[in-house]
Amino acid sequence: MLQAHGFEVVAAVESGSELTTSLRELEPDVAVVDVRLPPTHTDEGLQCALGARRRRPGLPVLVLSQHVEQLYARELLADGAGGVGYLLKDRVFDAEQFVDAVRRVTAWGTAMDPQVIQQLPARGAGADRPPARLTPRELEVLELMAQGRTNTAIAARLVVTERAIAKHTANILTKLGLEVSDDDNRRVLAVLAFLDHGR
Fold it and tell me: Which residues are 34's β-sheet partners?
């Protein structure tokens, strides 16, 4: 599927050790990794990908999982850098959605599975709500932001102006206490703050 959409696949591996070796030796533009790999079949793929990102900061990684695990999403986003994605394996069957996620991650964006984000607002009663008290529209914008969408794409999706989305985004960042910084990807940090609330 990736080759059919113009990607060059430099390696396909079957174990954590092979993944670690390939990421180190081949230095790919992006790694698409299954969370569960032999020999442990637990979270070895994720741990190998995180280790590779520590050795090569910013290595774009798209992790595939059978089930929604918010911890995996938090671990991926923990360094505050872009170039990360977390999708359910079912998304691979939607070629357009899967390829779009790979491209966004390769371009140092973020691609989070909608089901990860959708689970969080449902918990939002009382003390479990984000302390910033995001409005329903701001939560909607943050959900789309977590999927790696730009302000232009979010505006098109919600059928509002880009200026309105810029205002919502600014409000979200302010409410989450994310000050202006040249060093941090504030959109990624906003998503991380939101995911952290799902603990």
Answer: 64
